[in-house]
Amino acid sequence: MKSKLSILSLAIALPTCLFAQDSLQVMNNTQYPNTFSSGSADVQPFTNSSKRFNDWSISFGAGVPLMQSADLVSIKTSKGSGKDLFGYSAYVSVDKAITHAFGLKLQYDRGETRQGYFNTKDAAPANAAANMQYGARTQYDAISILGDINFSNLLRRVDNKSPFRWALHGYAGIGTLAYRAYLKDETGQRMTKEVKPFKFGSLFGQAGAGLKYKISNRLDLEGRVMYVVTTDDTFDGGGNQYSAINRKNNKSSDNFINTTLGLTVNLGKHESHLMWHDPLQEAYYKINVLESKITDLVVCKNGDADNDGVCDDWDRQLDTPAGARVDGSGVALDVDLDGVIDLYDKCVTVPGSVENNGCPDQTQGQGAVAETETKLEGIEFDLNSDRILPSNTPILNNAVSYINSSDGSYTVVGATDTRGTEAYNQRLSEKRANNVKNYLIQNGVQSGKLDAQGNGKKDLKYPECDPASKCPEWKNRANRRVYFKAK
């Protein structure tokens, strides 16, 4: 019942939130005409530079091919003497993820199958019936295009918010197969068939499944089983279709099973790969934010006299001025704690006097201002991004005005959340700090007043968010920030 009410609430609230968001964007564009707009403050065009995941990788591995349905087989399946024969195989591929559940592979295979027992209940040909000494090997090279379906992402439940390290993949594709087949009998070893690549008779197909384990963001381990359809009755080395070997069983096929163990190396500058990316995680975050806003729309039993969103039963300040931002207890915010609430404070981040509307008196001098100004919070970034969001421009424009009116100099400090390696986050924090510094300089701040510094993931606003999985997304987002420190 609770889930149904939640869905109904979302359906009612979404149009209202979208209208309010568009109205806010109109106001932003009016005040800041250079601000990017695409109809919504949270929408940006999807380009290669704005994506937050990698989609290229290289895979390689090795294994054992077994022929069990041909006239000559690898592992003994009928009575007779001799040893089981095992060949070898190897593959390398270049992989491209199209979506989180589908990709393509350009793969090269090379190997050798070894076989030597007849796949028939009848006796061997007369010249071999005494000792079953027939043996064969086939050296092959193959190039194929494979489709890759990530069943774990495709079938993942929408309410499953947990991270995962295992994934089941399915593969299927076609290509060209070149091989040389050799037969060894009482007369010695001779080549029975050779097929060149990219010829009509070299077409083949393969399909199978693989189980991947995520070792790290860069490296995956995979066990794979593929069934290779050679489309050729001479692949096993038995010779042409009229040879003594191939006439023993008309129902056999020269297909083989290839079992391999390999690694996948994910390429790119981002933290995660698209095949491990869950696109619903961002939706979960936005839904949680929306649900929290809906929860705030509670009907107060005893009313809300000052209309500040806090019911009178819990409101510690029942006469909050209209338009003032309040904390959870209904008290008007005073960020710099100078006794002037933010609604009336003309210097919100700098302590000042009540007589001067919250700004420092001129007699205090700019040096005092520099001493009291320690940092300016609120400039946040998307995950794995150093792009300045349109919602940050009002804060940055206020920073331009304040720094220009001050004689002090400032350090622009960048920080990240705890996802990713320390080296990656250090580079990202430096990019964020430099982007903000360049924005301020482009909008009129003297370059000599600013320098930039990246603190990586060591400068957390919420230290308890290490690792990031311990915190809700809004706290991790607050850790991805840039702030100002007076020097």
TrEMBL record:
PROSITE patterns: OMPA_1, OMPA_2. It comes from the Bacteria. CDD domains: OmpA_C-like. InterPro entries: Bact_OuterMem_StrucFunc, OMP_bac, OmpA-like, OMPA-like_CS, OmpA-like_sf, TSP_type-3_rpt. Its main location: membrane. GO terms for cellular component: cell outer membrane. Residues 1-20 form the signal peptide. It is found in: Cell outer membrane. Keywords: Cell outer membrane, Membrane, Signal. GO terms for molecular function: calcium ion binding. Residues 368-487 form the OmpA-like domain. PANTHER family: LIPOPROTEIN YIAD-RELATED (PTHR30329:SF21), STATOR ELEMENT OF FLAGELLAR MOTOR COMPLEX (PTHR30329). This is OmpA-OmpF porin, OOP family.
